[in-house]
Amino acid sequence: MWQWLKQLYHRLGSPKWFYEITGKWIPWLAVLSVLGCVAGLVLGLAYAPADYLQGNSFRIIYIHVPAAIIAQSAYVMMAVAGAVYLVWKMKMAAWVAKVIAPIGASFCLIALFTGAIWGKPTWGTWWVWDARLTSMLMLLFLYFGVIALQQAMDSEESGFKAAAILALVGLVNIPIIKYSVEWWNTLHQPATLKLTEKPSMATEMLIPLLIMIFTTYLFFALLIILRTRNEILWHERKRSWVKEILEH
Amino acid sequence: MSLVTATIKRDLLLAARNPGEWLNPLMFFLMVAALFPLAVDPDPKFLSKIAGGVIWVAALLATLLSLDALYKADVEDGSLEQWLASGESLYGMALGKALVHWCISGLPLTIMSPVLGLMLSLPADAYAALLLSLLVGTPVLSLLGAVGAALTAGVRSGGLLLSLLILPLYIPVLIFSASAVYHAGIGMDYNGQIGFLGALLALAACLTPFAAAAALKLNLSR
Amino acid sequence: MPASTGPTTIDLEARQLCCERDDRVLFEGLDLRLQDGDLLQLAGPNGAGKTTLLRLLAGLNRDYDGELLWHGQPLYDDYSAYAALRLYQGHLAAVKKALTPLENLRWLVSNWPVEDDDLWQALDEVELGGYEETPCQQLSAGQQRRVALARLCIAPAPLWILDEPFTALDKKGVSWLEKRMQQHVEQGGAVIITSHHALENIASLRQLELGSVRA
Fold it and tell me: What is the model's pTM?
């Protein structure tokens, strides 16, 4: 097991290996995310029953919830990749962390935007200082900080390191921010989906949501892979294997 | 005398020689608080309700103003290089610098806050909570802010960037301290909030110097 | 081990040192050894990596391949012990303009046990006598550098690592510093410096030409 992990680590650290293996994954990921998206949306929009309280407006959760989940886990991934870079100086990790930041921020924006749209029929106004929306806004600010810091540094390398440190500080802070915001505002509705307890949603509503969450993860992975491959080509442009690829 | 204590002494001496360094943010603190009655409503009833929050927002912004200079000069004139060359732990150094920052920023803000309380008709019951929350909360601001200052010390116009990085991290402190002052004002118990601030302070004192030390090294590895 | 008369206080060694910056190899396969009484001048054109090598040897930068040894042990095994024995002076003087030379020097040597009386004496020696309590902003650039260099008179560090120490010094200052280095080396200390300044009149001088190490 340990040997296997070690091997995997060394392989992941090799840009060439990553580039070659992910090249084979791209079509699968693309097809699966399109299929999953179609299936999830058809099930969610056409087959799931309307909510007895919110009517049809609840259906935006099929975008909102996956985006919010991805936005949060992307931050964790970014911080972990940053930590791997800081500790083991693995360049691949720095590139992945750099690539995740704008993607995570985009999902965060999508979650906020759909949250606002959801808010209009539910609360009668576009923006309410609801605990989860506020936490999402703070998460967006944290993303902005990481992106801004990375771009402000003179050398790319210190930009990576600085952004990684900030992401780690942010990671420790996220639960504290979340807790304090929730404490501050206890008027929010209970979280739509909790993994630890029995979901309060009807099964017909839940299945499309799970499909959408899974699909969004696939799509997220696809985005990371595509953009990381760009980073690899750019940073390794002087290596012979990249030159060979570019000539074809 | 170790380098850390020598640096704390030197920085306090520097602050005494350049009083503007800590007086200007204090003036800013006063002015920001004066804007609210002018811009919103001078009615004492209304003011007394928002006083705690306004004072805390002003304190937070004033803290940010003085943070930018915390490490900048040390990076530019080579002091930072000398710390690293000394072999002294950067953790202790980062903690020492945060302490210095609190002495020239958080402490004066705390001492001056009752004046702002008067201007903003803070309820009489809330003064103790205001002082206590500032006393426990502002060190957290200094500790967290020092990380941002260390990260942006080598960036040319780092001041704005610093605010961008640090403000979201200040949210929990702001929420709990403003709420402590508000609850004290309406005659409710505020021990929970102060306790939470204390926990934040303990956590920040343990962890932020690691991050600040790592960030400081970045400014040297060229 | 080379034959030596007794235990040396200084034994800094680099083995197969290699350093890259921004995908450019500055030097590789670099071997050097420095012991009591050595004076090593790093020479080479701008951008050859003199300052980088100096910072590696000083322990300020750990981004290298190869080995750096202090008495046969990796330098970073006991960095603070090494740091107490070596004095590093970079491009920057680490002098605060609002403070006096005396206050600045006191901070600069706070790593070592130094008496306050010695500070006055050291400032006197670098010809800052009478300026001890004048804020440094009123002093010239050369005088500010002398504040930092005054450390060389009092810090009990046998190994000096100096980056372009002659910058901004006048003729008198240059000859003072040359003499001070010679004395230090004769007393068994060691010096590594980068400088474009010719140091021919010091007997034990060794030069390492960077930029030529690469084949």
Answer: 0.88
